[in-house]
Structure formats: C-alpha cells, structure tokens
Design a protein that fits this description.
Shape: globular
Helix content: 25-40%
Number of domains: 1
Number of helices: 12
Radius of gyration: 20 Å
CATH topology: Rossmann fold
Number of strands: 8
Structural class: alpha/beta
Order of helices and strands: EHEHHEHHEHEHEHHEHEHH
Strand order of the largest sheet: 2-1-3-4
Largest sheet: 4 strands, parallel
Strand content: 15-25%
Length: 269
Amino acid sequence: MFSSGDNVASLSRKPELDLGKHWRAKLGFILMSTDLAAESDFNEMVPDGVGIHFTRLKTEDLTTNETLARHINYIADAAARLQPDTRPDVVSYSCTSGSIVIGEEKVMAEIKTGAPYSIPMTLITGVVDAFRELEIKKLVVGTPYLDEINTLEAEYLVSRGFALLDVQGLNLKTGIEFGKVTPGYWKKFAVEINCTDADAIFLSCGGIRSLEIVEELEIICGKPVITSNQAQMWSCLRRAGIQDKIEGFGGLFSKAGKRLMSKEASDTS
C-alpha cells in the first residue's frame, strides 16, 4: 500500500512491443483550415493497419488564385508537424486548386523541407495518377471554383495531355461554401455536365462532399467518376505500398497502381 511520503518502486518488466496500430503504413495530409469534407472522407476510405494523420494549413476562406498562392509560405511548417517521430510514408498537400496555382514541384519541395523522410504528394498529382491508371483521355470537369481558378485548372489538365470536353464551375467564393453544397447537388451537377464522348467525370476539390455519390454516379453514367479525395487517397496508398481493393468508392480502387509502388516511381512522375 502506498502511503504519502513513500517513493514508488516499480518491478522490472519487459513490455511486449510491436509495430504499433498503424503497422502497414502511415499517411499525412495537409488540409485547408476551411475544409469541411476531407477528414471524414479519408477516415471512410482508410484500410486496417494504415494510419492517417492531419494538420491544418492556415488559409483564407476567400478562394482565389491570389489567396491560394499564399499557401506555399506555410507548407513546410505544416509538413514538419505531421507525426515527425513516427515518420509518415507519404505526406500530401490536400488542395486541388492550390496544387495547380502553386505548382506540384514547388509544393513537393516544401513538403520535403518539412518532412524529408516522406514521399511528397499533391492532390492534383493523385488525380493525374488516377486518370492515367484508368487510361482516361477525354473528360468533363465540375468544380465549386471561380472561373479564374477553373481556367488555370483547364490549362493544367490540357498541358498534361487530357482533352477537356467541358469545364463547369459553381463560381462559389469561399471554402466554407464549397463544403456546404449537398452530395445530391453534386450528383445532379455531374449528370448535367456528362457527355457521351467523355471517358470520365472529374469532380474537383478536396473540400466538397462528392465521395459518397461516386458509386451511384458510375452506375448512372456508365463510366469512371473521379473525385479529388478519392484519387488522392488511392494514389497515397499505392505509393505507400498498400494495394487493397476497397469497395464503395468507385472502380479506381480495384486498380493496383503498380507504377506507383516505389519511391522511384513517385520521384519521377
């Protein structure tokens, strides 16, 4: 029995240690401070034995090319805060439009500065990975963005070799508005912009509630539906060596992504 004034003297023991709860892989995501969707999306998609860790980037709610460009000033610090002692396998900047406005190489260089032990990623990198895995050439794109952002995104995708049959934005101004658009509206919007010649539909933005209608949309439209968080999660998992076929989030997750299965692949993509 312990009495006040006694010193605790524990018996010598040898605790059993293993690789921890997240023994297969750990993924880190740098989210916008205004993002209302990504955390729940990633938690729904994550397989057993894989850890997901989040940090928030201080961002302005007004979403323009100018405000997105300022994210670069905070990415290295955000990456450094993502479980540095356990070293995530992959760290991804979770903003589609910001990845394009700033540029993938600049974003990944900042992530490497903050987390040199991790594979750096951006959301748009994961989207392009998904398009290539599914051999998509022609697509339609729906976004919540202002048209100044839509124009840059269209230019970026064309520069990567994709034909854009239509690009339509909702011209919303703030990240909070993005997250309040209902999944039902995204479904209706996607069906509206779909066209017969498109190989796929892309719903762009990590802060929108589109993940939950992917499967239904693929059945309705008879083609792949790619969303930002779905593509990002798929690519991060594959780059970390996780090939699980996860049901409920579209046909993309049936693909192994063999070209993304090594650090060398990620460094040269």
